[in-house]
Amino acid sequence: MGLFTKDIKTMDDLLLHGLQDIYYAEEQITKALPKMIDKATNRDLATGLKNHLEETNKQIERLEKVFEKLGQSPSGTQCPAIDGIIKEADETAGEIEDKTVLDAALVANAQAVEHYEICRYGTLIAWAEELGHDDIVRFLITNLNEEKTANAKLNTVALRKGVNKKASTSA
Prior knowledge:
Elements: H1 11-39, H2 43-69, H3 80-94, H4 99-130, H5 134-159, H6 163-168
């Protein structure tokens, strides 16, 4: 089912598609995060990414509850947006030799993922509320809040924990 195909006829169909999109995205993120953790040399960054991997697994569990409450089986639909963000992150990381610069790139790439998720969850919450699916909204809000917190922590690592400063003074 493509985003703007005839398979989506109603707002409920659109909501389901959006849920399948973010479910797929979260699953892809659980595959990408371990690679990022392995590449990170900044301890705060590596710890933050590890913690977010655990959170992401919990987010997937919440999404599975959302599907259940809607009477649907949890399933993903390919999301070219998250695939592109992850592909770009992999390609960029492969081009950087300096570890301090690589850490700065990892933060930026992780934030691109977070911003995508924040956008998706915000939309899904609005649609679920409009459709009267109050029983799933709290799960989506919890995921959204975790994504916002993860993004704020990445900002802290980049700015206050010195990742950007070290990268900018690297030879």
